[in-house]
Amino acid sequence: MIGIEKFFSSIARNNYLVLCYHGCSYAPDFSINGRHISSKQMEEHLIYFKKNFNIVSLSECFFSLRNGIVPKKKTIALTFDDGYVNNFTTLFPLLKKINIPATFFIISQSLVDDNFINWPDILDIIKSYSGTKTLEIGDEKFKLNGNFFSNKLSLSASDYIKKMGSDRDAILRDIMNKCGFAKIIPRANREYYKMINKEQLKQISENALIEIGSHSHSHYNLGNVNNELAKEELIQSKKIIEEVIQKEVETIAYPDGSYTNETKRISEEAGYKNLVAVSYQCTDDLQDKRILPRLTISNTTTFESNMIQVNLGFGKRGF
Length: 319
Fold this sequence. Notes:
The protein is built from 13 helices and 15 strands. By secondary structure, it is α/β, with parallel strands linked by helices.
């Protein structure tokens, strides 16, 4: 009897779910990267959500968490990471059309550097356009086999770079120079790597449907870097975004869901009230009302498969 009570208690409690997307493109090319969902499927998602769930802002989810509010209907919040320009050109019109709120998490370096390209996109551009078969990162070699991978380390180049600290950017510049990045970038489709600019972000932020949060300044995995760099990333991003949108930035979505208890502490000291993960990483997260997990939506599978995962997600990532 106790087991049954716990089971139904768990179902009743998991009435909220936060979803995580990235880019939204008219014609995604998964041979380049898998970070962009098609606008056709995105519209199907939004219509399905509107019909089957209550859709609220992320800030309302945090308010409900902290005040013990349990809705009668399954409730979701939509979030979009990185700040690709197609969030402005393709996604934003869909959200307005169907009248659905969302939160955009912005890598703030894109707002001060028009040429900024997020480091995972740099790797994908090199993979797709340079003809390079081997990446040399320090003493390690990563051979192209679908993605750049080291059999010696049993690790992809992407996962290797995620673990880096402040030396990352110098290493990336060296990789780009060796691969002739300046010559190949004109061949790459801008829709897959171009980030939002100040004017576009300001326009989005003025719409009542949209909340803006930080995704750090330059997309370091904050749980892997030292406290000084994490603090700099958090403070700088908040300041830059607030100057653009003229509103307080209250929420940070940790890049790659990477954080520690120290990261949470530093985030709160930097002025963030709401912290967003992927899966919980710390033993006290379930009781910590500052932080919420998210369900990452696949860009490369079918609409039906994604909706099955969303419905199951209340049990996996719901609260």
